């Protein structure tokens, strides 16, 4: 049995679809009218609607005519860098514009180098180095900025002498970072053997070739290194008092069996000390970053629309401490890139 019905409408060739695309027609009309705002909107809309499709001859001719004034208009609305990345996206299928894009990329890299030298701090310097590396492949500048930003967000603790009872605490290793002094006079420490208990369970063993049953007694204890009290953290522009309550416990057991007793090892007491020290270091770092992270975001938000350099610096610092914020995306829009292209 045959099937009947209307034939489906044939799909036009891809180049015909491009030629008939409304955004492409709008772009050509905008260029003819020298309406660069409309031309920029239309060429970006065409890229979204027909990404990767070849341009028809009218669009190519219009873009060839409009290149310089369109690039100048885009730069005036954002930055030279923003103009470059916008035009690079919308012309990715036109190798003929490679030389013009390369020239624009060189200008944009120079712009980023100048902005980097004028940056407000390590966050801003990092942002412009990252953009410059994306433009020119300057990985050395990006790596140097990465290291500088890491130092800016890493606390370097300078701990005052510990009280006598805490002289076994290991100080955190000094690292290149933002100096933080730690006043520890309010701490007290002790090493104690605590929480002892015994358990018994059936135990099988071989004696004289005969399997016998007995009772195995297990002696438990926990060696505790305790740190308690308050410390005061101070850094440029702020301070915080932190309550400390750490029990760095190390479990150990000894067995008493019909074959004899395996005693406790004195090394366990020594193992409790570094565990407690490690936990103290972690608590100090957490206490500092709990202040620095929201402070950077707040400062960055406050600077938006008022001081771009401060906004870039603080929002980049916040991104390194936590994760990139929508506000950083707003800043990066000036340069024609999205957060995911730098992070």
Key features of this structure:
24% strand, single chain, 11 helices, five-stranded mixed sheet, alpha+beta, 343 residues
General description of the model:
- A hairpin with a 2-residue loop joins β3 and β4 (238-257).
- The chain has 343 residues and is of the alpha+beta class.
- 50% of the residues lie in helices and 24% in strands.
- It has helices at 14-20, 22-32, 36-49, 57-77, 80-90, 98-117, 122-136, 139-153, 267-303, 308-321, 326-333, and strands at 155-159, 178-207, 210-235, 238-257, 260-262.
- The longest helix has 37 residues, at 267-303.
- Mean pLDDT is 86; it is low at 1-20.
Give a brief outline of the structure.
This protein has 343 residues and is an alpha+beta fold. The chain is built from 11 helices and 5 strands. α6 packs antiparallel against α7, α7 packs antiparallel against α8 and α7 (122-136) packs across α10 (308-321).
Number of strands: 5
The number of helical runs is 11
Largest sheet: 5 strands, mixed
Distance between the termini: 61 Å
Helices, strands, pairings?
Elements (H helix, E strand, L loop, with lengths): L13 H7 L1 H11 L3 H14 L7 H21 L2 H11 L7 H20 L4 H15 L2 H15 L1 E5 L18 E30 L2 E26 L2 E20 L2 E3 L4 H37 L4 H14 L4 H8 L10
Parallel strand pairs: 1-2
Antiparallel strand pairs: 2-3, 3-4, 4-5
Helix pairs in contact: 2-3, 2-4, 3-4, 4-5, 5-6, 6-7, 7-8, 7-10, 9-10
């Amino acid at each position: 049995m045959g099937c009947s019905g209307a034939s489906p409408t044939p799909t036009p060739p891809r180049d015909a679809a491009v030629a008939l695309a409304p955004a492409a027609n709008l772009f050509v009309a905008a260029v003819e009218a020298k309406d660069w705002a409309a031309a920029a909107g239309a060429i970006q809309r065409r890229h979204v609607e027909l990404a990767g499709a070849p341009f028809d001859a009218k669009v190519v001719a219009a873009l060839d005519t409009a290149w310089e004034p369109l690039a100048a208009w885009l730069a005036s609305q954002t930055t030279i860098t923003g103009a470059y990345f916008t035009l690079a996206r919308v012309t990715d299928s036109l190798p003929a514009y490679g030389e013009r894009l390369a020239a624009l990329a060189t200008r944009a890299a120079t712009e980023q180098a100048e902005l980097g030298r004028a940056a407000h701090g390590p966050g801003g310097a990092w942002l412009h180095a990252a953009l410059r590396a994306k433009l020119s492949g300057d990985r050395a500048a990006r790596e140097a900025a990465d290291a500088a930003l890491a130092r800016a967000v890493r606390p370097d603790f300078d701990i005052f002498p510990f009280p006598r009872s805490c002289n076994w605490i290991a100080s955190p290793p000094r690292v290149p970072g933002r100096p933080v002094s730690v006043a520890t006079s309010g701490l007290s420490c002790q090493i104690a053997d605590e929480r002892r208990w015994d358990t018994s369970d059936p135990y099988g063993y071989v004696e004289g070739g005969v399997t016998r049953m007995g009772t195995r007694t297990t002696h438990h204890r926990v060696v505790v290194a305790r740190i308690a009290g308050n410390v005061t953290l101070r850094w440029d522009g702020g301070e915080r008092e932190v309550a400390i309550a750490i029990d760095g416990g190390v479990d150990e057991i000894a067995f008493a069996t019909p074959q004899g007793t395996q005693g406790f090892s004195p090394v366990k007491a020594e193992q409790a000390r570094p565990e407690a020290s490690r936990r103290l270091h972690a608590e100090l770092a957490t206490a500092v970053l709990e202040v620095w992270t929201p402070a950077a975001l707040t400062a960055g938000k406050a600077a938006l629309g008022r001081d771009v350099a401060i906004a870039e610096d603080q929002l980049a610092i916040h991104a390194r401490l936590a994760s990139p914020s929508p506000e950083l995306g707003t800043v990066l829009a000036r340069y024609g890139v999205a957060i995911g292209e730098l992070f």
